[in-house]
Amino acid sequence: MLPRFLGLRRRPWPVYLFDLDNTLYDANVHCFPQMHRYMHAYLQEKFGLERAAAEALRQQYWRRYGTTLAGLMRHHDTDPHEFLQAIHPPALAATVPADLHLDRWLASLDGPAYIFTNSVTAHAERVLARLQVTRHFLGIFDLSAAALRGKPDVHAYRSLLRRYRVAALRCHFFDDSRANLRTARLLGMRTTWIHPRRRQPGQLAKLPPACRKSLGGAR
């Protein structure tokens, strides 16, 4: 079946890009605590660190480089695929609940939607399945697709635009990270910030109806 937005129209349809964790669902509750434990265990095993030191190293690299992995690759020549596999086991998405409000809201969008994530495709697929919104997304652009240079590195955004053959000016990007949105705006994308600490179930679905056509959300 053809996507609902295909057909005759006077201008190209918009393209919607969605971060995954803490944008489509509350990862602070359903994902990040477990992921951080997996990261700490990995760092403790690889470098012989105490838990507190492992947590400090994770936060240091995340703040400085945008992802913990970027810091590990830069300073420790860490195998990225081993690390990503270690922190994204199948059980990570097990507590993510279905979101029927999100499902209906995504169905109202007037253009194609893609996932743009610093995680891995397998994790994104499991989360979308748990949310019951897989059908709304035409693709998943993950960290490997960006040659391991994730958001907010501009390389990731340009690689995504090339992959899907779209212009930045047609894109509207949703993310919980201001740094990630800043890069998107510099390229000409429209953006909406999803506040990570004030997030509520169905938050995206509570955006005003006008967003479904022009999505002139907060920049």
UniProtKB/TrEMBL annotation:
GO biological process entries: nucleotide catabolic process; pyrimidine nucleobase metabolic process
GO terms of molecular function: nucleotidase activity
A Pfam family per the record: Hydrolase
Taxonomic superkingdom: Bacteria
Entry-linked Gene3D superfamilies: 1.10.150.450, HAD superfamily/HAD-like (3.40.50.1000)
SUPFAM superfamilies named among the record's database cross-references: HAD-like
UniProt name for this protein: Pyrimidine 5'-nucleotidase
Organism: Igneacidithiobacillus copahuensis
